[in-house]
Input
Amino acid sequence: MMLPLRSRREPRVNQASSAGLPLDGKRVILGVTGGIAAYKSIEVCRRLIDAGAHVVPVLTDAALHMVGETTFRALASEPPKTSLWTDPDPIPHTSLGQHCDAIVVCPATARILSDLCTGRSGDLLSATLIATEAPVIVCPAMHTEMWEHAAVQHNIATLSARGVIVVPPEEGRLAGGDVGNGRLADPVVVVDAVLAAIGPIAGVLNGCRVVVSAGGTREPIDPVRYLANRSTGRQGHAIADAAHRAGASVTLVTTSPLRSAPGVDRIDVDTAAQLYQAIAEASADADVIVMAAAVADFTPATVAEDKIKKGAGAPELKLVPTVDILAALGERKAQGAIHALLVGFAAETEDLDVNARSKLADKRADLIIANDVAAAGVGFAHETNAVTVFGRDGMELALSIRSKDEIARELCVLIAQRLSVPADTTRHQ
Ligand code: CTP
Output
C-alpha cells in the first residue's frame, strides 16, 4: 500500500504556533541519496523550511557527486551531515534518529530502499533510518527498469507493510532522455506527504469522506459570455487540501483552475446545475460536505445559440433561480437520505451575524463560516481571510485575519471535533 499517507505514530492535533506555519517546531531529516533527481531535493529543502520545519540534511557519498554541500549549507537549518565518522558527535546516527519528527529520503535510490529493507547500516543515512521511531517517508526515483524490477517492488511492498510512507514516482522524462515511470514526485507532493505525516492536523480526519465545492459558477448567456462572480476558489481548495492532509478521502467539485493536492479526487464544473449534479452524486456516502463555492443564485432562462450581436440593441436577460444546493442537502439530511455534517459559507457585506444565523437555520446547515467580504484582506481574491464560525449548537468562534491555509486547518480541526473521529481509526474500511 503506498497511499493514503499515514503516520506510524499516534496522530496528534497540534495547533500551529503563533507564526502559523504548519511545520513550526518540527525537526525533519532530509536524506539525500545519489540519484540524478538529487537536485530536486534542494527545492524540497526550501519548501520544508518555508513550511516552518527545522531541516537537517544528511547526504550520502553518492549524493555528493550530484549536489554540493555548500548549497545545503546555505539553505538548510544546519550544515549537512555526510559521514558516520567525521561528526563531532561520536554516535551521530542515534542522535539524529532519536531527535527528529520525520525523515524524508528524497530521492531514494534502489540501494537505500534495499538497505532500509534489510536493516543494513553502511553509512550515516542508512544507520539513522534504522535508529529512528519517527515516520519515514521515501521518495523513490530511478529508471523504469529499475523501479519495475521484482527486487525493488518487493522492497517497496515490505517497507509499505512496515509503515514506511512511500511517495511513488511519476511518469515522465528521466535522465538520459528516456521517458517512463520512475521520475521523482513533484517537490510539492513530497512536502505534502510530510505535512500529512506530521503536520498540525495529521490524522484528524482519518477515514472520513469529505466533499468540498469551490470557486464561482459561470452561467452562460451565449457561446462567449457568462454571468460570474469574484470567487477564485482559493479558500475551498485550501480546505480540500487540508482535509486530504488530515487523512480524509476528498472529492473537490470546483470551477477554479487552481491546483489541488494530488490525491484529491477532483471534478471540474462550470455552472450551478453541473455543480449541483456533482455534489448530489458525491454526497451519498459523505461524512462532511463543505459548500465553499459561490454558487450563482440566478441563471439565464435561455442560452443564445449564437453570439448576441450588439447591433440588435441591449438584450434583456431573463433570469431564473438556481437550486440552493446547501438548502437541498439540508432537506435531504432532514429526511434521513444523507448523514453528512453540512458546512456552508456566508459571504456578507452587512449584518454578518444576523445573515449568517438565518442561513444556518434556513439551509439547515451544521456550521456556517461567515466572512465580511467588504473588509480589507478578507474573502474573494485575497490570500488571507477572517471568518466567524456559527454552529447549529450555538457555537460562535471568530478566527481573526490569517492565511486561507490556516483557516482551512482550523476548520478541519473543528469539523473533526464535531465528527468525534477517534484519532487512529477509520470510519470507512
Ligand atoms: N449556496 C448554494 N446554492 C446556491 C447558493 C448558495 O449551495 N444556489 C450555498 C453557498 O455555497 C454557501 C451558502 O449557500 O455555502 C451561502 O451562500 P451565499 O452566497 O452567502 O448566500 P445565498 O444563499 O446565495 O444568499 P444571499 O445571496 O441572499 O446572501
